Amino acid sequence: MFSLNKKPTAGLPLIGVGLRHHHFEDALNSPANIDFIEVHAENFFAQGGASHAMLSDIAQHYHISLHATSLGLGSSLPAPQKQLAQLSNLVERYQPILISDHACFSWAEVSGIDTHAGDLLPIPFNDESLQMMVANVERAQQQLGQQILVENLSAYIELPGSTYREAEFLVKLCQQSGCKLLIDLNNLIVNATNQPLLSCSAKTPSFSDQENILAYAKQWLNRVPKSLVGEIHLAGCTQVADGEMMIDDHSQPVSDTVWHLYHYALQQFGAVATLIEWDENLPSWQTLIAEAEKAKLIAKEVFSTAQKTAALNKLSSNHLKDISGEQ
């Protein structure tokens, strides 16, 4: 066993990784210089068992973040009370530093039975969806006793009826419900890549090259106030040829495009908690931790540059004051 210092480096974001069953033993037996781990909440809804015993041990060494997929916050049918109660039990047991779910539709009544779609489905960005999401987020936060983060979705169909841009819609959600955003940067890249294949409008521009894709993603980020961002997700996915649909499969290292966007996001939002996701074709624990180290290096570069710029500005300001005093 080992002991980790849970205090983050001053001025830098918390950096963590998504923990999957394949890496449980490694997380316990191979010390890693990370600040937190994220687990999928629904994997621990069952009472007791080996998984809880393992997670309890892991929680002695790492902060825990709970990432849910079952609340369906954009559904007209609210998540059953049982789902919220199970998540609430996990929150009480593990005291997570972050709780998150998605801006999606999942719940519907089928033959009189509340049914989960088994997927994260997109919603139209309009006032009706906003009203439902605000109510569902407020209900969840009241039950959990803690602010939640809502993640932007990678969507493979574009629904008619939207009256807001996605970023504008999510900002309104935060302002009206008190939640914050979990911005998944790879989802932005995936959606920009797929946009020409999905658009309901012939006027939608094509984002076929990386420069335009990055420009789209940066414009999306520019619409979000710094105060509303609570976490950033980084992931990689299988690359595709032009004209093919890109799927956010979390099966590859973080792409150069996403790393570039992460650098920009840190400049925009400051030292926001950051997580590496990798769910398919799982790498070794060492490879996963190496991705987290890349995130730390970028953060150090961004914030050391910002500190130097601030120091130079202060020196310049003091120099000007001295000159004015002499005159």
Radius of gyration: 21 Å
- What string, H for helix and E for strand, traces the elements in order? EHEHEHEEEHEHEHHEHEH
Structural class: alpha/beta
Instruction: Summarize the amount of helix as a percent range.
Output: 40-55%
Query: Which ranges are low-confidence, i.e. pLDDT below 50, for 5 or more consecutive residues?
Result: 1-5, 201-205
The geometry reads as globular
Say how many strands there are: 10
Second-tier CATH architecture: Alpha-Beta Barrel
The mean pLDDT is 90
Distance separating the two termini: 66 Å
> Beta-strand percentage?
15-25%
Helix count, per DSSP?
Answer: 9
Number of domains: 1
Quick take:
With 327 residues, the protein is α/β, with parallel strands linked by helices. Helix content is 43%, strand content 16%.
Please describe what this structure looks like.
It contains 9 helices and 10 strands. The protein is an alpha/beta fold. The strands form 2 sheets. It has an 8-stranded parallel β-barrel with strand order 1-2-3-4-7-8-9-10, surrounded by 5 helices. Strand 3, helix 3 and strand 4 form a beta-alpha-beta unit. The longest helix has 42 residues, at 285-326.
Keyword list:
globular, two-stranded antiparallel ribbon, 9 helices, 327 residues, TIM Barrel, alpha/beta
What layout of secondary structure does this protein have?
Layout: E1 15-18, H1 24-29, E2 36-40, H2 50-58, E3 63-67, H3 81-94, E4 98-102, E5 105-110, E6 113-121, H4 127-144, E7 149-151, H5 166-177, E8 180-184, H6 185-198, H7 210-222, E9 229-235, H8 256-269, E10 274-277, H9 285-326
Parallel strand pairs: 1-2, 1-10, 2-3, 3-4, 4-7, 7-8, 8-9, 9-10
Antiparallel strand pairs: 5-6
